[in-house]
């Protein structure tokens, strides 16, 4: 292994451990552990959101997808970004005004119903596990390639690191790891895309002309339609992406780390600028990889295209840049999985243990202990699952997580804040229908069944035609919330008035 | 920093939220928010979905814009510009909502609230 790679790798591990050490000293209460005491500033939280959101799937996956599929690789970027308008305009501020630690807290500001809390915790845990397995399996394969170490060692390294951050440093450590990662990632993106553009004297038109001749797709490389040939499938995927972000538990949790709705708003703005710039620069990385690494070499390193960005760094910047980009990819993985562990742990320890089992009467000490045990449990469980899943094609789990978030969580969030008549029954129906319709439809989809061996989990013909079922499951989630509500007589106007006033004024007395 | 608690706080009985909800001041805030957020949300969702719909069911976006840069790319990039523009407009507008919300807390609920 290249010594520069080792040095940068160790530097990142050391830096994050120092952060964790200081964070651990500041973590004194459950509030510190789950939400950093609500004390982050807007730009800090904005960068942390970007750090939490821009996963290895975004950085390496989309760079690779653009390098291999041209325009179609860019679809993901657009969906991932526009999703922040849903967060900004409809979700962030009421969420901050109503919630405490988790999504279930926010929904229960209207209901005080254990069943609703349980259903919300169930959907949170499902989303977190799917997202996490996709991240860890991807991380294992990637670190194996980057640093030339066995898969299981790679998964264990990432797994142990994320456990340390969360277990000792809670949200404070997690946030700062995410902030550092966001800065490193953006620096890496700017450097590489600057070097690619330099080669064309910053003439983007010339770059388009050249890339058109560089790949086996020819002119089609610049046009939509190489990867996404099924119109309804494309629209369904785009629906999951744009509505899913506003229901992802690890993103929602970030809004509890700031003091009020105004700061929540300014953090979305910082995040949106950062994420937007990132997704524009990623086009230059994708084109650069198509030009200077070449299709066949990208595919030879990894059939999913995940090595396109690091290989491009090597091609234009030599060993040092390769080592830097690899280290950035490593930091990216760590920051995302740490955020996931924390949101999974909060659903177990705060929602299920603290509020359902202990009925909100657990002592501070018990809550803290439960949070740490839950973090450990979530980590170990997902590490074990990921070790078993090495040879499975699990990339679709990320878009499935977005789909569940859009079908189960988003309807309930929107109804809670905006619909007067909404009640307990409707919340449970929406959560369970959204969750299970997404799961059942995916289990019959081409992501799980493919006639080509190795292309999906099982060999066989899919019953349901769309890879991502959002087009069906999102309307089902909203419909179930509506029907569940009107079929039940329960209606509490007083509670609605309280939630509406609090959500819109930020009154907390 | 202490996390302010929600409904479990016993102070809640002091505030008549129904009265606040029915007040003309609060209704006006809701109306202003609605007038701003609903059309904007409908607009950005339509603008967003028109891209995959037009690339899936037609090829007219494959026509060149300048040189080899096609309209599909221009449309895609315009989505980024739209996001940043809406963000900027919203932040400006939201500060007036903040002011209205503060007024409601001060006039109707009394001290103890934080914006």
TrEMBL record, chain A:
Cellular component GO terms, alphabetical: plasma membrane
Q: What is its main location?
A: membrane
Task: Give a yes or no for keyword Membrane in this entry.
Answer: yes
Give the bilayer topology: Multi-pass membrane protein
Kindly list the residue ranges recorded as spanning the membrane: 6-24, 45-68, 74-95, 116-143, 149-168, 180-198, 232-256, 268-293, 320-348, 369-388, 394-415, 427-449, 469-487
Q: Which Pfam families match?
A: SSF
Work out whether the entry's keyword set contains Transmembrane helix.
Answer: yes
GO terms in the biological process aspect are: plasma membrane acetate transport
Regarding protein family, the annotation reads: Belongs to the sodium:solute symporter (SSF) (TC 2.A.21) family.
Protein name listed in UniProt? Cation acetate symporter
Which species does this protein come from? Ornithinibacillus halotolerans
Automatic annotation (TrEMBL), chain B:
UniProt keywords, alphabetically? Membrane, Transmembrane, Transmembrane helix
Q: Which residues are in coiled coils?
A: none
Q: Which residues cross the membrane?
A: 36-60, 72-91
Query: What Pfam families does the database record attribute to this sequence?
Result: DUF485 (PF04341)
Its domain of life reads Bacteria
Q: What is this protein called?
A: Membrane protein
Species of provenance: Ornithinibacillus halotolerans
Q: State the taxonomy lineage.
A: Bacteria, Bacillati, Bacillota, Bacilli, Bacillales
């Amino acid at each position: 292994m290249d010594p520069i790679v080792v040095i940068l790798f160790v530097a990142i591990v050391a830096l994050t451990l120092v952060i964790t050490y200081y964070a651990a000293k500041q973590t004194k209460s459950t509030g510190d552990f789950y939400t950093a005491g609500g004390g982050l500033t807007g730009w800090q939280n904005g960068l942390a959101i970007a750090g939490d959101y821009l996963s290895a799937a975004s950085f390496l996956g989309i760079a690779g997808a653009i390098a291999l599929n041209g325009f179609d690789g860019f679809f993901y970027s657009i969906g991932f970004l526009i999703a922040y308008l849903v967060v900004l305009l409809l979700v962030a501020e009421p969420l901050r005004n109503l919630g405490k630690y988790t999504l279930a807290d926010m929904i229960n500001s209207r209901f005080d119903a254990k069943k609703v809390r349980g259903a919300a915790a169930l959907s949170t845990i499902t989303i977190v596990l799917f997202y996490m397995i996709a991240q860890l399996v991807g991380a294992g394969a990637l670190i194996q390639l980057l640093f030339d170490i066995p898969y299981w060692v790679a998964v264990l390294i990432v797994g142990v690191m994320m456990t340390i951050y969360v277990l000792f440093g809670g949200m404070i450590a997690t946030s700062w790891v995410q902030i550092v990662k966001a800065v490193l990632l953006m620096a890496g993106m700017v450097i590489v895309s600057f070097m690619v553009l330099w080669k064309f004297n910053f003439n983007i038109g010339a770059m388009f002309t050249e890339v058109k001749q560089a790949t086996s797709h020819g002119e089609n490389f610049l046009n939509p339609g190489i990867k996404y040939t099924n119109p309804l499938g494309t629209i369904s995927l785009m629906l999951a992406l744009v509505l899913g972000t506003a229901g992802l538990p690890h993103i929602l949790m970030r809004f509890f780390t700031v003091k009020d709705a105004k700061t929540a708003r300014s953090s979305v703005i910082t995040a949106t600028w950062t994420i937007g710039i990132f997704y524009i620069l990623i086009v230059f990385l994708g084109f650069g990889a198509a030009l200077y690494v070449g299709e066949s070499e990208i595919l030879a390193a990894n059939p999913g295209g995940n090595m396109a960005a690091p290989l491009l760094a090597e091609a234009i910047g030599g060993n040092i840049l390769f080592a830097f980009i690899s280290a950035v990819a490593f930091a990216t993985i760590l920051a995302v999985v740490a955020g996931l562990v924390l949101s999974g742990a909060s659903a177990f320890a705060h929602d299920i243990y603290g509020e359902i089992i202990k009925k909100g009467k657990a002592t501070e000490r018990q809550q803290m202990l439960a949070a740490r045990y839950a973090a450990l449990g979530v980590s170990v469980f997902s590490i074990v699952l990921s070790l078993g899943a090495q040879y499975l094609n699990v990339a679709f789990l990320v878009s499935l997580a977005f789909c569940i978030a859009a079908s189960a969580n988003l309807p309930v969030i929107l109804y809670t804040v905006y619909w007067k008549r909404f009640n307990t029954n409707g919340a449970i129906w929406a959560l369970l229908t959204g969750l299970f319709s997404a799961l059942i439809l995916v289990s019959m989809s081409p992501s799980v069944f493919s006639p080509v061996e190795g292309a999906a989990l099982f060999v066989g013909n899919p019953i349901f035609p769309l890879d991502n079922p959002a087009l069906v499951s999102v309307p089902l989630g909203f419909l179930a919330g509506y029907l569940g509500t009107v079929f039940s007589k329960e209606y509490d106007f007083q509670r609605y008035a309280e939630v509406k006033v609090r959500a819109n004024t930020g009154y907390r007395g | 920093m202490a996390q302010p608690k929600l409904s479990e706080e016993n102070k809640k009985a002091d505030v008549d939220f129904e009265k606040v909800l029915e007040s003309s001041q609060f209704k006006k805030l809701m109306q202003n928010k609605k007038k701003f957020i609903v059309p904007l949300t409908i607009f950005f969702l339509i603008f967003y979905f028109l891209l995959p719909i037009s690339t899936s069911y037609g090829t007219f976006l494959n026509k060149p814009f300048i040189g080899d840069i096609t309209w599909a790319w221009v449309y895609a990039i315009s989505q980024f510009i739209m996001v940043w523009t809406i963000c900027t407009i919203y932040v400006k507008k939201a500060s007036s909502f903040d002011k209205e919300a503060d007024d409601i807390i001060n006039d109707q609920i009394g001290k103890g609230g934080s914006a």
